[in-house]
Amino acid sequence: xxxxxxxxxxxxxxxxxxxxxxxxxxxxxxxxxxxxxxxxxxxxxxxxxxxxxxxxxxxxxxxxxxxxxxxxxxxxxxxxxxxxxxxxxxxxxxxxxxxxxxxxxxxxxxxxxxxxxxxxxxxxxxxxxxxxxxxxxxxxxxxxxxxxxxxxxxxxxxxxxxxxxxxxxxxxxxxxxxxxxxxxxxxxxxxxxxxxxxxxxxxxxxxxxxxxxxxxxxxxxxxxxxxxxxxxxxxxxxxxxxxxxxxxxxxxx
Length: 253
Ligand code: PGA
Description:
Layout: E1 6-10, H1 17-30, E2 38-42, H2 48-55, E3 61-64, H3 81-86, E4 91-94, H4 97-102, H5 107-119, E5 123-128, H6 132-136, H7 140-151, H8 157-161, E6 163-167, H9 181-198, H10 201-206, E7 209-212, H11 220-224, E8 231-234, H12 241-248
Parallel strand pairs: 1-2, 1-8, 2-3, 3-4, 4-5, 5-6, 6-7, 7-8
Helix pairs in contact: 1-2, 1-12, 5-7, 7-9
Residues 10, 168, 173-174, 212-215, 233-237 line the site of 2-phosphoglycolic acid.
């Protein structure tokens, strides 16, 4: 089955409103004419609506970096799926390793967020990945298995079809140490096999699995050649139009 490649930029806690609008303006030009690749950007909450306005009429999709599972109420500092929808979001990133590491995210809270996103018609970019210690301890596959089982708990076929999985080995994020295409492919294949067991061959063949962790214009092509790597979740290199557009245009390199 043909899966549409999907490249998303995770801006993390970078860009003021003005800087974010400038960057998407540049991106619209740098990415004009690009076909057969889906593209999304995930600015911080404060810039979402302004970026949405700037993106009107463009195929670039808007993503948020997190959400809270309640619709509204006394949850100081949190943002609900309804708010994200109204601000123009199409996707939401859930379970990023920085959330797991620094903000107490667990498989259970990841699952609650994913369910809430899907109920409100937000598509999910669900992040998983092992730490260096886990990899060196030979625990990569059990960790991935646990994260998938926990994160997708209770979701049916149709819901999982609205989910993209981002495999991001924690040791490769922001470190300049990318997984080799073979190392990444091995885990991507494992993830797809797991999805087949949990759902079906048809479901697992349709789900896109992105790789994330120090993706650059230099290494994207080799990663995208792998049969189970369907795109990338890009951090550092998504903060400049030049490097991000080169990644999106990987076929032309
Ligand atoms: P990086 O971040 O590309 O800067 O390694 C990727 C991510 O955290 O999504």
